[in-house]
Amino acid sequence: MSETTSGSYSLSGSVGASVGTSFDVMGIGVNAQLDASVGGGMSVTRARGKQATRSFGLNVTCAPSGNVQQYDAHRKPVFDADGKPVNAPDKVDAYRFLSFHLGEDTEHFDTFFHKVVDPSWLENGTDPNAAALRQARQSDRKPPCWRVMHRVTFVSRLLPPVPPTDAPPLERTMRELDLDSNYELVRRLDPYVRAAATGRTELTGAVRTALGTYLPELQPHAEDVIAFLAQYYGVED
Questions:
Q1: Cα-Cα-Cα-Cα dihedral sign, residues 174, 178, 184, 185
Q2: E strands, the chain, in order
Q3: Are 181 and 158 in contact (CB under 8 A)?
Q4: How far is it, in rounded angstroms, from Cα 73 to Cα 190?
Q5: At what angle do helices 222-233 and 200-214 cross, to 10 degrees?
Q6: What pLDDT shows up at residue 79?
Q7: How much is the pLDDT for 19?
Q8: Quick one: average pLDDT of 12-38?
Q9: What count of Cα atoms within 13 Å lies in the side-chain half-sphere of residue 139?
Q10: In what helix (H) or strand (E) does residue 170 lie, and over which residues does it extend?
Q11: What is d(CA 202, CA 196) in angstroms, rounded to the nearest whole number?
Q12: What is the DSSP-derived secondary structure letter of residue 84?
C-alpha cells in the first residue's frame, strides 16, 4: 500500500499609499504628491508521502482419513500373509495443492452463485448455510467480493500389486522396484533433486544424475519421471 498527498499554494500581496497636499505661498499655489508601494510574492509546494505494508495469512487445514487399506466384500480389512495391511489400488496416497487469494471483483459474485453453489440446494435447501446465502445474495447489485481458490497441482495413486498388461512401462518397472506409487518415487529421489527444483533444465540434470546413481532401472523412463517431478515441485517449462 502506498499513499501520497501533495498540494501547493501561493501567496502574493502589495501595499500602496498615496499622500497629496496643496498650499499657497505668497499667492502661488504649490501641489505635492508622494506615492509609495510595497509588493511581494511567495509560492510554496508541499508533498507528503506515506508507505505502509499490510500482510495477511491464510490458514488451511486439510485432514483426509489417510486410510488406504483394502477391504473385502464384507467391509473387513485385508491383510497379507505377514499380517500387514494390503493397500487398495488407485487410492490417493498423496497430493499437493496451492491456495490463491483473489482480490475483490464483481465476476467472483457471478462465479460463486452460478458455478459453485448448487442452485437447487440454494433455492430449496433447509440447511442454515443455504438460508444464510439466500439472505446475503444481492443479485441486483452484484457486489464485488473476494475469492479463495484451492487448486490441486499433483496427485499420486497407489499402483496395483500386479500391473495389468496395458500398464505403462514406468509403472511395471516401479512395481519391480517395490515402489507403490509416484509419491514413493518422489520420496526416494527428493533428497537428491529438491535443491535443483528451480528450473526445468536444472531439475532435468539432477533427476538424470540421481537415476543413474540410485535407480538405474528407471533411466529408460527418465522423461516420464522428470515430467511428474516437475509437476510435483511446480517447475514450469
A1: negative
A2: 2-25, 28-51, 92-105, 145-157
A3: yes
A4: 38
A5: 130
A6: 92
A7: 61
A8: 62
A9: 5
A10: helix 169-176
A11: 5
A12: P
Q: 3-class SS at 52? A: coil
- Please state which of the ranges 6-20, 58-72, 86-100, 205-219 shows the lowest mean pLDDT: 6-20
* Rounded Cα gap, residues 58 and 198, in angstroms: 25
Residue with cell 496427485: 155
Average pLDDT score over residue span 52-73: 80
Q: Amino acid identity, residue 51? A: Q
Q: Pull the grid cell for residue 179.
A: 515402489
Task: Name the burial class of residue 155, with classes exposed (0-12), middle (13-18) and buried (19+) by CB atoms within 10 angstroms of its CB.
Answer: middle
Q: Residue for cell digits 460463486?
A: 112
**d(Cα 50, Cα 57) in Å, to the nearest integer?**
24
Residues 137, 87: Cα–Cα separation, whole Å: 45
User: Average pLDDT of 186-201?
Assistant: 94
